[in-house]
Amino acid sequence: MPQNLTGCNPSLNFSLLSALSTLYYLDRHEPLSFAIQYSETRKALGFGIGEFKKIYAAYVKQRGGK
After folding, report:
1. Considering the domain boundaries, does residue 8 fall inside one?
2. Which residue from 8, 17, 28, 30 has the fewest beta carbons nearer than 10 Å?
């Protein structure tokens, strides 16, 4: 069963998944944009640095990335 990283808020779940998907694409195809967008996205979603890093790493692993 998949983990629910954001509790019960479906809107936040959708925003988080959408943001992670965008970051994943940028990470692979536009590294400079990724560096800028990663920080802005983390702040906009209200996550701490370490917390968001773990969430993004788990997303990349789920997608079969490095």
Report:
1. no
2. 8
Sign of CA pseudo-dihedral 13, 62, 41, 53:
positive
Q: How many CA atoms lie within 13 A of 56 on its CB side?
A: 22
7: left (phi over 0), alpha (psi -120 to 50) or beta: left
Query: pLDDT (tens digit, 9 = 90+) per residue, 21-46?
Result: 999 999 999 999 999 999 999 999 88
CA distance 13 to 40: 18
The encoded tokens of residue 17 equal: 């998944």
pTM: 0.77
Residue 29 lies in domain: 19-62
